[in-house]
Amino acid sequence: MPSLSAPVLQLDESQLHHINSKLSAMEPHQILTWASTTFAGLYQETAFGPSGNVISDILSSQGISVPVIFIDTLHHFDETLDLARRSQERYGFDLHTFKPEGCHTREDFIARHGDNLWKRDDLVYDYSVKVEPARRAYETLGARAVITGRRRSQKGDRATMPIVEIESTGLVKINPLAMWSFQQVWSYLRANEVPYNALLDQGYKSVGDYHSTRPVKEGEDERAGRWAGEEKTECGLHKDYFAMRA
C-alpha cells in the first residue's frame, strides 16, 4: 500500500481520457502496479466474486499489498462468507468488514428495518446494506481510490465503463479487468488455483445476496441470475451516492 504522503491524483476530463487511453493498452497487472504507485488511500473493494478473486491473486503475485473492504450485507450466502475467510488466509491482506449501520446480525437488521425490505423498497434496502456501509468505510479508512472487479462484459451500466472513473464524491474507481470476459476470468481462476465461490460449480456466475441471486441458465448473460425478472443491473454500490442518499 502506498504511504498516505503519496500524491493525490487531480484530473480534469481531458487528462482522465488520456489516462484511460493509455491504460486500455495495458494488462491488468500493469494497471494495478500503476494504481498502487499513483494513489494514496488505495483499497480493493470486493464481495469476493470471480473478478475480485483474480485481482487479489494478481496483487499478491506482484507483491503489492492493498487492504480490502468487504461490505457484509448480512444477506450473503454462507459460501461467500466462507470464501472471504479463505481468501484472507490465502493472501494475507488486511480485511475491513463493514455492515449495515447499527446491525451485527441478520436478526438485528430485521428488527431495525422489518423483514423482506428488498421486496418493500429495494432502493432503501440497497442504500442500507451497501451504499451507506461503503461510504462509512471510505470515510473511516480514508479511502481515496478503490479497485473494483467490474467488467464491460457484464453489460448493463457497465458496458461502456472506463478503466478509471471519478465519482461525484471525488472517489476514484479503478477497474483493471474492464476489458476481460467471464471466460478469461474463469480460465485465470482455474490456471492459478485461485479460491472461488463454491456456488460457481452449481451454475452461478455472479453471486450477490441469497434472496436475489440464482444460477445462470445456458445461453444467458453472466449477470442474468441477479435480480431476475427485474429491470435492475446494479445494487446501488456503483450508483450516484447523493441521489440515493436523497
TrEMBL record:
This is 3'-phosphoadenylsulfate reductase. It comes from Coemansia linderi.
